[in-house]
Design a protein that fits this description.
- It is a single chain.
- This protein has 354 residues and is α+β, with helices and mostly antiparallel strands.
- The protein has helices at 9-16, 70-80, 104-119, 161-170, 172-177, 198-211, 226-232, 235-241; strands at 2-3, 19-22, 36-45, 48-58, 84-88, 125-128, 150-152, 183-185, 250-254, 260-266, 281-288, 294-299, 311-318, 324-329, 331-336, 340-353.
- Strand 9 (250-254) and strand 10 form a beta hairpin.
- Helix 2 crosses helix 3 (104-119) and helix 6 (198-211) packs parallel to helix 8.
- The chain is globular.
- It starts with a strand and ends with a strand.
Length: 354
């Protein structure tokens, strides 16, 4: 699902007036029995745009036994026709000044809530926060596919470059556990909010799409300028994000000069299915997080687009310009500006030899 929303409850209320904040006690069958935010917004699923009901649960209440009686939750969620539920942190620490968003106790609370969601028999996307970064509280576990469709891979993203680098650095545990039906959530996109340059924003969008992170817009949709719209409206990258195979691109190489290569397989041809035939295409991101322009060499073997010791030839499509370079053998050398990323789709493999 590609969900279009804005960042944070307060911003939703100020900008769009489409949210209903709920904080009731005691619970009843037509009210949600926990502090939450109910939003209605556009989303894309199955190639079509729908109006989706999004429930943001401030899950500090999930740890309280009275917070969500299963029958009450089930009736409420069915009646409100909720499509997307975000369970946002547990805060299970006894010390109120220390609020870990993950850990065994937190995961147990998410499990209880997931059981209540499943009992509704209504199809819903369940997203849990539980950051799985390199901090003092480890993931428990990174693979949360038994209870959720999405799991936050790091702490909250901010509208600045150091925050983007922190999220990408922390994301590997969940990204490596991603597979169809369970995806790493790199957090909402900070594109169009002013803290990132256009180059940085294109890099962020390239990586978020390649990793198959949910695409949630964190800017003011009513005030999007042409540059922002062109970035988040890149249909080539959105097609990668929504690829039928559902395999996340992984970090396959940290180069000595600081460049990174992210790559992953694709299961659907660029123009759509071809008579049901197997597809051999790949997405490759050459990412430059450094402060200098870099000349990056992308080796097809490193990108797992060619067997070790073999020589492979690919047609290479630039996913930002649309330019197609035919018959590139063994590797692609590309200039990537500081804080930028080059995004490519490898198509029409040929010339495989030992």
């Amino acid at each position: 699902m590609t969900l279009l929303s804005t960042r944070g409850a307060d911003r939703w209320i100020r900008q769009h007036r489409v949210c209903l904040r709920t904080a009731m006690s005691p619970p009843s069958n037509d009210r949600l029995p926990f502090s939450s935010l109910l939003c209605i917004g556009p989303c894309r699923a199955d190639g079509q745009t729908h109006s989706c009901v999004v429930l943001l649960v401030r899950a500090s209440t999930l740890s309280h036994a009275h917070a969500c009686p299963p029958m009450c939750c089930q009736v409420s969620l069915r009646r409100l026709q909720v499509d997307f539920v975000k369970s946002d942190s547990c805060f299970t620490s006894v010390d109120p000044t220390v609020q870990p968003a993950d850990g065994p106790r937190c995961f147990a609370d998410y499990q209880k809530f997931a059981a209540a969601l499943n009992a509704t028999k209504r199809p819903m996307v369940h997203s849990i926060k539980g950051p799985c970064g390199n901090g003092p509280t480890p993931c428990s576990p990174p693979d949360a596919s038994s209870i959720a469709h999405l799991r936050r891979a790091a702490g909250d993203v901010r509208d600045n470059w150091p925050s983007i680098i922190r999220v990408l650095g922390d994301a590997s545990l969940v990204v490596n556990a991603s597979r169809p039906g369970f995806f790493a959530d790199l957090d909402i996109l900070e594109i169009g909010n002013g803290g990132l340059t256009p180059t940085e924003e294109r890099a962020v969008f390239s990586l978020w799409c390649a990793v198959k992170s949910p695409i949630l817009l964190g800017n003011n949709l009513a005030k999007m300028n042409a540059t922002t719209l062109a970035t988040v409206g890149n249909t080539e990258l959105l097609a990668v994000n929504q690829d039928a195979l559902g395999i996340s691109a992984r970090l396959v190489s940290n180069e000595s000069d600081g460049a990174q290569i992210w790559a992953g397989p694709l299961g659907q041809a660029r123009g759509g299915p071809v008579d049901g035939a197997p597809v051999d295409e790949h997405v490759v991101i050459a990412f430059n997080p450094t402060s200098s322009t870099l000349l990056v060499s992308v080796d097809w073997t490193t990108a797992k687009a060619c067997s070790s010791g073999a020589h492979c030839t690919w047609d290479v499509r630039d996913l930002w310009t649309g330019n197609l370079t035919k018959a590139v053998t063994d590797r692609l050398v590309v200039t990537v500006e500081s804080h930028g990323a080059a995004a490519f789709r490898l198509e029409n493999k040929s010339g495989v030899s030992q």
